[in-house]
Specification:
260 residues, 12 helices, 27% strand, alpha/beta, 8-stranded parallel barrel, TIM Barrel
Length: 260
């Protein structure tokens, strides 16, 4: 099956819309926040009620939610479990969750809560063999996040650099066959300056996995620029600050991808 056809088949399985939009619900101290370039001290608080925020995106047509425990990502231990559990158990769409997922026990715990897909990041860099086994053990339930700063892989909530080129790690991940690969350009995250298209295109050419891109969406034209990449394996886009600031409305973004 050609790559474009395979991705469209996957899109049908993941909700039937080309391309998928993932509103980001990032949790810090129990609140819904957005960071600037991953800096924990550079936060903007958008809501003290993440559950209400999650319901709001679903009401506007979201078919998936992207939830991250920022405290857990930095500290290595999940810190917003109760908030995540409330979201997962009350929304009627699948939820992918990341942040502090560094053991099989934690992965099993979140899957047991009803999380559709657990996101691994630091573990994939520090313990690749363990991550490969986890992907085999939980087929279709694991996403691996490739978080990069100017092409170098970052880990531990983006606070440390592994000094490894992202394509090297991407090709390792590709062999593990997780459900999806999430590519985040940290230097673009929260800036609204647009995604890192050159590195995204290089990644799509290097792997056969479906890819979700994050970081930098600030205008509906940024999404329009991504639509042609569906044929190369781009499954979806995570949108955060642009939605919360109103520079992109979910309705216009959804209309764009549905029209495409």
């Amino acid at each position: 099956m050609a790559l474009g056809a395979r991705v469209c088949t996957l899109l049908a399985e993941f909700g039937g819309v080309c391309m998928l939009l993932f509103p980001a619900v990032d949790l810090k101290g129990g609140r819904c926040v957005r960071l600037w370039q991953g800096q924990m001290e550079a936060e903007t608080v958008y809501s003290d009620d993440p559950l209400a925020m999650a319901h709001g995106w679903v009401a506007q047509g979201a078919t998936w939610l992207h939830v991250v425990d920022l405290d857990g990502a930095v500290e290595g231990e999940p810190r917003n479990v109760s908030a995540i559990e409330r979201i997962v158990k009350s929304v009627q769409v699948p939820v992918q969750v990341g942040g502090g997922m560094r053991s099989v026990d934690r992965i099993e715990r979140y899957l047991g809560l009803g999380v559709a897909r657990v996101i691994l990041g630091t573990l994939a860099v520090e313990q690749p063999q363990v991550t490969a086994e986890i992907c085999r053990r939980f087929p279709g339930r694991i996403a691996v996040s490739l978080d990069t700063r100017d092409g170098k892989v970052a880990l531990k909530g983006w606070q440390e650099s592994a000094s490894v080129h992202y394509l090297h790690v991407a090709q390792q991940i590709d062999a593990w066959r997780p459900a999806v690969l999430i590519f985040t350009a940290i230097q673009r995250d929260g800036t609204l300056e647009g995604p890192d298209l050159p590195r995204l295109k290089e990644l799509l050419a290097a792997v056969s996995l479906p890819v979700i891109v994050a970081g930098g969406i600030g205008h509906v034209n940024h999404i329009r620029d991504l639509v042609p990449l569906e044929a190369d394996g781009l499954l979806g886009v995570i949108i955060g600050k642009a939605l919360y600031d109103g520079s992109v409305t979910f309705h216009e973004a959804l209309a764009l991808v549905q029209g495409a």
